[in-house]
Design brief:
By secondary structure, the chain is mainly alpha-helical. About 70% of the residues lie in helices and about 5% in strands. It starts with a helix and ends in a 14-residue tail after the last helix.
């Protein structure tokens, strides 16, 4: 029971990060490989506020604001000038932004890992298994955030504009949709989700470093591809599935050291069976 709960909790973290990847790809048609490093930015924001004030709630709020602003600034100065450029140019820029953020963090905070002291909330017993309260909070808050995002996209004016831009950018422009504004909002939402992911990640591993977001970012991208890149439900499903697989593999000593290889093998297997991902949709390309 505890392994399943831990797996779902880790899956919720991957899902929150994967939502940022899948929303940006679905709307802007680009892979923002710097998205994982926004988690690192959020973690250092929490560390800074805790060091100065010792108030974790203030640290969380500042982290959300810093990550959101960072996402908007990156979109405006790094990606917006490349609107209409080749996918390769955008991809190289995203990798460059990733290294830039890591280098800035290393200059400001050093290359060594820094511990972060978050409040310990103890354990509860459910069906005979001891489960961390942090795990339960991650699951509940993660589920609420993902449900709210789904409702936002389906039922709000901005959400419908996002769907329109995702389906046909040219038609959306003709209907009066501000495409640049929608892309900026998408980056802001994805970066805010990354701030929550950084908090939940620190609740499991209470330390940060300039490369904190690299592996979670790659695994979250893997989750997005497994679920179907561009699909919000697919990102959620892929994140949960990957989190469960990781925790189950880590709980088996004989295969625990091969956990990462098994996760990426799962990606290859699913893409061989269904190249568009589990919940991915086929799109007709206009010629």
């Amino acid at each position: 029971m505890s392994i399943i709960m831990d797996g779902l909790s880790l899956g919720a973290i991957y899902a929150l990060i994967a939502l940022g990847y899948t929303m940006v790809y679905g709307i802007a048609k680009m892979l923002n490989f710097a998205h994982g490093d926004i988690i690192m930015v959020g973690a250092y924001a929490i560390l800074t506020i805790l060091t100065v004030t010792g108030n974790p709630l203030l640290g969380i709020l500042v982290s959300i604001v810093v990550c959101t602003v960072s996402g908007v600034v990156i979109e405006k100065f790094a990606y917006k000038p490349l609107r209409g450029a080749s996918p390769l140019a955008v991809l190289i820029t995203a990798i460059g932004v990733s290294f830039f953020l890591q280098s800035i963090a290393q200059l400001l905070f050093g290359a060594k890992s820094r511990p972060i002291s978050l409040p310990y909330l103890g354990h509860v017993t459910i069906f005979g298994a001891e489960i961390s309260v942090n795990t339960i909070i991650t699951l509940i808050v993660g589920a609420i955030i993902m449900a709210m995002l789904t409702l936002f996209v389906k039922y709000t004016r901005t959400g419908r504009a996002m769907q329109a831009v995702s389906e046909d950018r040219g038609a959306a422009i003709l209907m009066g949709v501000n495409v640049n504004g929608i892309i900026m909002i998408t980056f802001a939402i994805g970066s805010a989700l990354a701030a929550f992911a950084s908090l939940f990640y620190l609740m499991q591993i209470p330390s940060t470093s300039p490369t904190l977001g690299s592996m979670p970012g790659i695994k979250a991208f893997t989750a997005a591809v497994i679920g179907g890149i561009g699909s919000i439900p697919g990102a959620m499903l892929g994140g949960m599935l990957l989190g469960l697989v990781e925790k189950i593999c880590l709980s088996i000593p004989a295969i625990s050291q091969y956990t990462t290889a098994i996760e990426f093998s799962l990606l290859i297997l699913i893409l061989l069976v269904k190249p568009i991902g589990i919940l991915g949709k086929k799109r007709r390309e206009k010629v």
